[in-house]
Fold this protein.
Amino acid sequence: MIPTSANAAAAAQTLIGRNMDQLTIIQPDDWHLHLRDEGALATTVPAAARCFGRGIVMPNLVPPVKNVAAATAYRERILAARPENSEWQPLMVLYLTDNTSADDIRAAHACAFVHACKYYPAGATTNSDSGVTDLERLDEVFETMQELGVVLQMHGEVTDPDIDIFDREAVFIDRHLVRIREKFPALKMVLEHITTEQGATFVRHSEGPLAASITPQHLLYNRNDMLVGGIRPHLFCLPILKRNRHQTALIEAATSGDSRFFLGTDSAPHPRNAKENACGCAGCYSHHAAIELYAEAFDRAGAMHQLEGFASRYGADFYNLAYNRRKITLNRDPWTVPERIDYDGGELIPLAAGQALNWRLQN
Ligand code: NCD
Ligand code: ZN
């Protein structure tokens, strides 16, 4: 049978995927991660610095990082935990609340190391109790962000109890994102950790500056992995893993070469006992093997050649930052992810614990 040109292209891609044993790319950045604070930083900061050049540090501490003074102090604590000789940089974010003012945004804009403001709907996820209760109240804040070019990062879920947890992202897009996009056409927005076909489609077709970050867990797993044959609490994160169709749409988006989609691990450590619990908390820890987990997903899709754009260029372009000058090399060199990791006097269970990964970062 004579292959069609589409098939021939697919076959060529598979060949690239199978034959490539080494890949050198510009050092990647993580555009969404949780480092936590105090004792946790001894684990999370070296893990971030292991492969990334920069990391966008989420502000959902208790209390949250709401202003430049709090971000400055948190950044100092993070830098104190950085391994010697590391050049890794934390990029700070302010947490929007009902009381955030236009002056808070001006102060954020004037601060060299604050790169965005994060919208959490109140109660949507871990440590979001101080989040925004009514999005429409933030119009003045969004107006100022648009004017100054400050990036708005969105946890894109509604929290109404009558909306099914698997529909929260799609309903957020219909109810809120469409309106915000229209009302603030020049506002730079990132729909964080997208998990649905609707999210990927909306971002792809949206006019104006809108991008999305994608996590390794949403590329590698779907809700069957979390729920079939028993509940796996270490795969529970928010937004929750969706059905297979959505996983496929996210893989397509991430590996398409479309610069609107970039890396954001949402690495979110929790002690083992907080996850293996009658009311287990949400978040997957992935920084023990972040780039290796993405490499796994890209390799499976025959798209290793798209990894550099997704991991190292498109996010920097969106945030108007230069690419990292260093390079990293990944080798096809199978290894097994540890079953557990020491964490803040206890332990955590990393994403893909005990599983084999094909790619390994060269030191
Ligand atoms: C995050 C956390 O633990 O801080 N949890 C998660 O499931 N992703 C919060 C968040 O980003 O939603
Ligand atoms: Zn997060």
